[in-house]
Each structure stands twice: as C-alpha cells, then as structure tokens.
From TrEMBL, chain A:
Molecular function GO terms recorded: ATP binding; ATP hydrolysis activity
Organism: Wenyingzhuangia marina
Alphabetized UniProt keyword annotations: ATP-binding, Nucleotide-binding
Lineage: Bacteria, Pseudomonadati, Bacteroidota, Flavobacteriia, Flavobacteriales
Cited PROSITE patterns: ABC_TRANSPORTER_2
Protein name per its UniProtKB record: ABC-2 type transport system ATP-binding protein
Annotated TM spans: none
ABC transporter domain mapped to chain residues: 2-227
Pfam families: ABC_tran (PF00005)
From TrEMBL, chain B:
Bilayer-crossing regions: 20-44, 56-78, 98-121, 156-177, 186-206, 236-256
Keyword Transmembrane: yes
Native source species: Wenyingzhuangia marina
Biological classification of the source: Bacteria, Pseudomonadati, Bacteroidota, Flavobacteriia, Flavobacteriales
Name of the featured protein: ABC-2 family transporter protein
Alphabetical keyword list: Membrane, Transmembrane, Transmembrane helix
Amino acid sequence: MITIENLNFNHSKEKQLFQDLTLQLNSGNIVGLLGKNGAGKSTLLQLLSGLLSQKSGNIDINGFEPYDKNPNFLSDLYLVTDEPYVPNIKIKSFIKNFAPLYPNFDVEKLKNILIEFQLDENMKLDKISYGQRKKFIIAFALATNSKLLLLDEPTNGLDIPSKKIFRKVLIESINEDQLVMISTHQVKDIETIIDKIIVIDHGRITFNHDLYEIAEKLQFKKVPSIHNEDQVFYSEKCPEGYHIITPVNKNEETEVDMELLFNAINNNIAIHI
Amino acid sequence: MEKYFNLTRFSKYFRYNLSIHYKAYFITCIILLIGLVCTNYIYLCSNHEYKANTHVTIYTLSYCLSAILVIGTGFPELRTKSKTIYFLTIPASVFEKYLVQFFIRTICFTIIYHVLFWVSLKLAHHFYMLTDYKKHFAIYDYNFFSALENSRPMQMYVPISLIIAMCLMLFTGSIIYKKHTLFKTVFTVIAIPFGIYVILLIYSYIFHPGATDDFYPTLYNRYLYDGGIYGYGTRLILIITITSFTSLLLIPFAYFKLKEKEL
C-alpha cells in the first residue's frame, strides 16, 4: 500500500528532517504514528498526501506518486489535519456538494456517525465549536471510505466522551482494504485501537512493530518495588510503586502500556523485540 | 487524459465551488453594481454629454479596477495553511481547479460585468431623471468596442491585448503570492511594464544617445507599406507582440505554478 524508499526531505532553510527514510505499510492496519513535537509526524503525513515534495527518494501509494496530485489518488485519500478548514455552509450542504467528489462515499455511514457525535445536519460549520468541527471532519473522512486515511492529532479538541465515540466509530468504520495512520502525541487516546506503532524521532524511525509482537515479547506491570533490575528494560515511578517493562515471563501476556513504551523509546532504552 | 480532465468530475467540482463561494460572488456583484451606479450617476450629474466614447472610457476603467479586485483575489483557498491543505487535497485535477477559477474569475466575471454595467447605466440614468431631469439627454447604446469602431482593427487590439495581459498577470499573481496577494499582484502588474520601459530607456541611451530625449526611449515608428498604402506603425505591433507574448506565456506559467504548489 505505502512504500517509502530512501526518502530525503527538509523544509527550506532548515536542516535535513528525513534522511534515507524507508518504510512499508500494508492495508488493514491502524497505525499509530508517535513522536515528540517536531519529530516529523505531520510532515510525513503531508508528504504522503502530496502537499510537500520530497528532495529525493520514492513514495508510492497504491501505484501513485502523491506529489503528482492525481485526482484518482486524491479521491482515495483523506487527510484530517489538526486545524481543519471548513467552509461557511451548513453540514448538509457540505455533504451534498462535496461528497460526490468521493466515489466510494457512504452517506448512510456518515449520518450514523453524525448521530453518534450528536451533530445535526442543519448546523452551520462556521458556527460550531472547534471540537464539533473536528468531529464532523472525522465523520466525513470515515464516510469517504478512502483507502488511506491520515489523521493528524484527531483527538485534539475532543471531550472525553467524544474520544470514546471516536475510537468506537473508527473501529466500526474501517475495513480490511483501508489503512489508517494516526499521528498523535496523546498516546493514551489511541492505545486501544491501533495495531501497529511507529515512533519517529528527529526524522528517523526509531520503533516500528505490530502490537501483537510487542505483547508477545514484553510485559507491562505495576510493581511495589524493583527486585531484579537486570530484567527490567524500563521503569517509571508511580504512586503505587513502579511501572515497569520487562521481557515476557512464562508466556504471560499483559496489556501494552503505550505511554510507558513511548517514554522508554524516547529515553533511548533498547527494547528488544 | 482522464488524469487531467474529466467532464463529470469538473462539473462536480464546479458545482461544489459555487456552493462554497456563492455568497462571496453575490456580494461582489452587489458591491460592483452599487459602485458602477454611483460612478455613472456622478458622471451624469457633472456632464452634459454622455456619448459612446464616454461610457466606454468609464466601462474600461471600471473594468480594470474591478478586475484587480475580482481576478487578483482568485484562489482564495491559497491564502492560509489550513485552506491550502484543504484545496490541494480536493479530488479534482490541478487543471480542473485552474479551469474553474479561470472560468469564474475571468470569463464569467467579464460577462457579468458587462450585464452589470448595462444595468448600472440604466439605473443611473433613471436616478438622474428623478433628481435632475432638466439636463435630459439620451444615453446611447454602449458597447465595449464602440469607442474603437472607427479605428482600424490593429488599434483596437492594443487596449484589448493590454487588458488581457493585465488580467492574466492578476490571475497568476493570485496563485504565486500567499500573503498580501492583492498588493503584490498590483505591484507586479505595474512593475513589469515599468521594467520594460526602463530597459527600453537604457537601451536607447546606450545605442542612440544622441536621439534619446530625457525620459523618452527611442522607438522608431515605421509604417509598414502594404499594397500601395501605409499600414500600421511598428510601435503598435511591438506593443501587441509584447502583450500577446506575455499573455501566452502566463497561461501555462500559472498552471505550472499551481501544479507545483506546496504548503
């Protein structure tokens, strides 16, 4: 689905961001693209959606080069940005006029998601709050049934119940031939829905594993004290004692604590998977 | 070919564009109409004559001013980052996006402007008759080309080619400049002819220092001899050549600038 080979990119007058970046992603995944501020997450999404041109290297998405801006490619891609632009019209007018540009658009699906998000079709897009606008754009993006969905900080501005609904509708809406990339630094918001983690740091991919691989090889526990330090990859103090990452013991699987894992990766801890 | 243009997709995008911007287009038409009515009314009140030459002058000057506002503010989605992202990811080809703006901002605008001018003239005349009927006079039928009806065709092409070149410069400027678009575009529209004039002046001083007078470049105007009569002057042909070449160059240039548009 997505093949990136030896990608080199830098914003003008800035130092190199991506250097020989290589990445392959297949459909049927919800990928969490994690990283600190300025790591290059949004830039990568912008390169994938053809908004920026790479200095060298190849990006291939279903046989298309994004920067060519082929309309057939664009009709199978939806990018939800952190601050999405919406025109000053009613939701129903937006749907009526914009949806026909997406050949696989599912109006019924959109209506159901709008109900879940408690959005009315008669609402004017310029009169609703930032969070509501974000929810509408997420709903619209999901209803396009695009093969590639790029969500940049989708949970920013969403209240706690809306974050829960977002996770629910995302899981329900996505099928096997779609790929969703969620870029965020709010790791907790997406940890229950993603099945692959990619961590970017200073334009380099520092971690790229499926969730099941992580769960098979690592344990995430809360312990009152640390006895055998050699067995602990990473630890963080907490009120109850310590959050720790250890190798799997006796095939006992635990839930992946993504925030702990992310912090470990960011602290350059060698995680062996 | 489908990659560049598809009639169904184009019509969907065109309809979408109208649905998004119809209010702005409508308000522009209203403002334009009010402006034209006021201009024509003021002119009627202060003059005793209103012939074809007069209203063609007002028509042309107002057209140029309106074109600056309408064409110079084309591609409104390219002004901010979030709008640019939205615009560039709309599933229509770059050519279709270009064509929609070109069609609305130049062709539709020119047609609508013509209609609005006609309406404004009639309205201004009507208001004038209500307020100052003593200076009663008829308004002749107006036509964009009527002032030039007695001129030879080549002379008519000069203002037309100048206006077309100006419109295309404004259109290109609206793609190139992100911030202070209108100001930068107008500056460019003034700077390019001024640049040509300065170059001509410099060359005149270099090659014909004796024949050059202050700020007047030496442009020898030779009348072309055509089948027994003297035809058009070389100056006229030079102006038409420069403006036509500029226009032809700007059409693909604007397209490729849009195609290469990045965040």
